[in-house]
Amino acid sequence: MKSGLTLGIETSCDETAAAVIKDGTKILSNVVLSQIDIHQKYGGVVPEIASRHHIEAIFPVIQEALSAAEVALDDLEVIAVAYGPGLVGSLLVGVAAAKALAFATKTPLVGVNHIEGHLYANFLDGREVTPPLVCLTVSGGHTDLLLIPRLGEYEILGRTRDDAAGEAFDKVARVLGLSYPGGPQIEQLAQGGNPEAISFPRSLLEKDNWDFSFSGLKTAALNYLNEAKQKGKEVPLADFAASFQWAIIDVLTQKLLAAAEQHQVDKVVLSGGVAANKTFRGHVQVKAEQMGLELLYPPVHLCTDNAAMVGSAGYFRYLAGYRSDYSLNAVSNLRLGDE
Ligand code: KG4
Ligand code: ZN
């Protein structure tokens, strides 16, 4: 059916999500059922618990997305599902649901890389995103710097060698006794703090090195907190949070803009949960403008995991001729370009 309607399904971590997208760019419905409350008491996502909750939630969430969009299963042109990277037990639930629906309705099935999905969150306000561009995907599981010469083509310039940027936020927040996910909590705590109060290390800033490393920063932040505790000193929380956040933002921004310059690309794109950080967005905006670069980032609610982005990426993959068959499986360490 040539309806331009895509059902997107996303279960790669702790969000059970389904969305209906028209023509790859218009959101008709976007349902995200977060398990944050469930995992909060453990300080992070517990994979087995996540998959169990996905199983319970997946069909009600899909049903809600379809009815909110006033779309019937038979109206769909494409069913798109994130099949990696992510937690294998979580991914499997979305993949199995997508395959079952595609089989039952004879609708084309398209497997989507979750990271590619994050990039396509930028397409969802109808804006045209035309390569070449350099994209930085920063989330709880990934810090990937990508050169995108053409839509669907990815060159991974660099990635984190240890912790992802969001993971560093989450781990330090946990030690501060803040709830999961830590990024938004640290951002809030940092308000009014002095980002230069504490000098935290920046790694791998040498020229032409596009990889990231945040474990040294994380250790320095944790050592700072331990030392203060041992000496009975009060931690200046706003300054601590602002300085820690700034160390991450500074490195991310420098690398993104240097990569754009090196590859002579005049458009840079942010995606992933950490791109929801307003200080980060604001800083990149100022620096990009100074260099005459155009900056794109998704609205805050589309930075974190959702199925609208999967629907968009899936629809454009479908237009490019990609189809998945019923042997589609979850691939926890799926890399861009592996498909
Ligand atoms: O993209 P996402 O929802 O899930 C993954 O694919 O990992 O990203 C979640 C990550 C978490 O680590 C969270 O702490 C971080 O994004 N995050 C933020 C902010 N909002 C979410 N980090 C910094 N500032 C924020 N405002
Ligand atoms: Zn994600």
Protein described:
It is a single chain. This protein is an alpha/beta fold and 339 residues long. The protein folds into 2 domains: 5-121 and 303-319, ATPase, nucleotide binding domain (Nucleotidyltransferase, domain 5, 2-Layer Sandwich); 130-300, 2-Layer Sandwich (Nucleotidyltransferase, domain 5). It has 11 helices and 10 strands. The longest helix is centred in the C-terminal third of the chain and has 26 residues, at 237-262. The chain is globular, with a radius of gyration of 20 Å. The model has no long low-confidence stretch (mean pLDDT 95). It binds 5'-O-[(R)-(carboxyoxy)(hydroxy)phosphoryl]adenosine and zinc ion (ZN). The site of zinc ion has 5 residues, from helix 4.
Q: Fraction of residues in helices?
A: 40-55%
Biggest sheet strand order reads: 3-2-1-4-5
Radius of gyration: 20 Å
Distance from first to last alpha carbon: 25 Å
Helix and strand run: EEEHHEHEHEEEHHHHEHEHH
Q: What is the CATH C level class of the largest domain, in words?
A: Alpha Beta
Number of helices: 11
Poorly predicted parts:
none
CATH fold call of the largest domain: Nucleotidyltransferase, domain 5
Largest sheet: 5 strands, mixed
Tally of structural domains: 2
CATH architecture of the largest domain: 2-Layer Sandwich
Structural class: alpha/beta
Mean pLDDT: 95
| Ligand names | 5'-O-[(R)-(carboxyoxy)(hydroxy)phosphoryl]adenosine, zinc ion
